[in-house]
Amino acid sequence: xxxxxxxxxxxxxxxxxxxTDDGVALLTELGRWPGGxxxxxxxxxEPCPVGxxxxxxPTGQEKxxxxxxxxxxxxTGYVRAVHAVDVRVQTRLVAGHRGELERQRARVRxxxxxxxxxxxSR
Length: 122
What we know:
With 122 residues, this protein is mainly alpha-helical. The chain folds into two domains: 1-76, no CATH class; 77-122. It has helices at 17-20, 60-76, 78-96, 98-120; strands spanning 24-28, 36-40. Strand 1 (24-28) and strand 2 (36-40) form a beta hairpin.
């Protein structure tokens, strides 16, 4: 599959074929509209990816294309640029939700303290 977030990694290990066969819509802040989706559709004639329901691995042509793609991204600094955008977006989001995040951190720390107390009492 290919889509607007190419160059970023997404682990879809364990996703069922019916979740990806018709494409996927991934939440992203890297689009024009915050909270948007990046749509990934299977390319026409694209072979099934390695995973459940698919026994074949990538073909030689697919391996060569992937290698060329990786070299191009390295040579042009594409992944570094996308990463920089991602960092800016995440920094802005964290700053805008700092209070909520601090409250969540306090809840998690309290849950850990409670769990420790329960375990120590055994």
